[in-house]
Amino acid sequence: MVHMSLLEGYDFASYRDEAIDDDGSPRAHYRPVLAAMDRMGADALARRVELREVVQRSRGVTFTMRTEGAETERTFPLDLVPRIIPASQWAHIEEGLRQRVRALNLFLEDVYGEQAILSDGIIPWDMVLSSPQFQRRAWGIRPPRGVHVHVAGLDLVRGDNGDWMVLEDNLRVPSGASYVIENREVLTRVLPELFGSSPVRPVDHYPAMLRSALRSAAPPSAGNEPEIVLLTPGAYNSAYFEHTLLARHMGVPLVEGSDLLTDGDVVYMRTTRGRQRVDVIYRRIDDEYLDPLALRPDSLLGCPGLLAAARAGTVTIANAIGNGVADDKAMFAYVPEMIRYYLNEDPVLASVPTFLCGEPDQREEVLRRMDQLVVKPVDASGGYGMLIGPAADEATIERFRARINANPRGYIAQEVVRLTRHPTLIGSALAPRHVDLRPFVVQGGDRIEVLPGGLTRVALREGSLVVNSSQGGGSKDTWVLRETTPRPRIETGARRSLIRPLREERDDTALGWQQPQQQQASERPPC
Fold this sequence. Notes:
The protein is α+β, with helices and mostly antiparallel strands and about 525 residues long.
């Protein structure tokens, strides 16, 4: 066992620990980081915590937390102990994420088109038609290149055996990518010495990945320079920091619904130079608020006529309208069958076992085992409205039992996963806290890219399994390590001749993925 003062009294035996082995020693890929933090000592780490707060506030890294009907803007909690994923583990995760997003995209193309998977009886018709997220008005809309899922955020967890499993799919307006970028930026400023001993893959190219995917999603009428905008509900949205950061780094206008108008099934943006045609809308507004003519008539957040323009093929809405039917929590149980049906492959990543309360036999088991399961509404997010059976009292269980009986289709249940824990700086020492991971997948045409790492969310309250920031959770910088295979030795005489081919090999523009426009030095996050 390796002795470290920061690990005095650390409980590594109750759950599988990401960083600490069964004998209490740091796992090999964590030793350099934990040893560096241990050498710093508690007082120095406390000063770094203070510095983290200063850096985050100066960069405006905030989100809005809703508690008891009130809204509070706060800095996004960042724990200073990074989560580290070896290259071999990440290769497996990346393969599984690509496979899953490909199958989910094919499902959306099918369910808003031929509906073959329903006709073949793989998924029941009523499962789709009864989904609150199935948008009938989106049927027949064919987005360019058949891409419905331009950005996906899939929530992954690990249990006692260490295997990675999918807990949820987020295909509508997944949030959190900006915090991946900012967590890395903040940690490099606060604890730069940690990076010297670990070959960490970068994450700051995410805006370039996203912009390139959006460019490739433009309709044919857009030409070589499509106009892309990011549509936000406004400054009072809890993810507004992310909207501003992504728009700035992609070099695209940040617009609200009132900035857009439609004319002849074409979308325009109001500018000081007059109307300017819009080709791609990266929307951060839920479906029902996008178009008051076709969806929710009292919405002031969207733009009248957007759906007609999408149907006419003059504008691309990313992510596509109607994606929610694929991440309906009841549909989650069918994703392994989607993978087999569309790809003729077995799932690379397993799904957390899920019960459909709309199925009588499964509902009976859920009602019998409610004190052992996690019960979730099919259309909720952010950790709201769910029951964690082992932590609930009998009165709460009875309330959920009544809700399930009143609306069986509206609920699913999942087995409780004993989430792995991770060292987290609590006060002046490390303590174990439960974590999950939300990687981000970007799809542009036939190309599917996975951002190395993603957003590790951590339940800061001792014993809590709820990691959502809206429920008091925090985050970690997630490190994916590079392969450490030695490079072949290059003779001095040959080195000069290899420089140009190597640079050309790294030219992303040759693959159709454009880099964002150079940002001015003044375009920094607000102070």
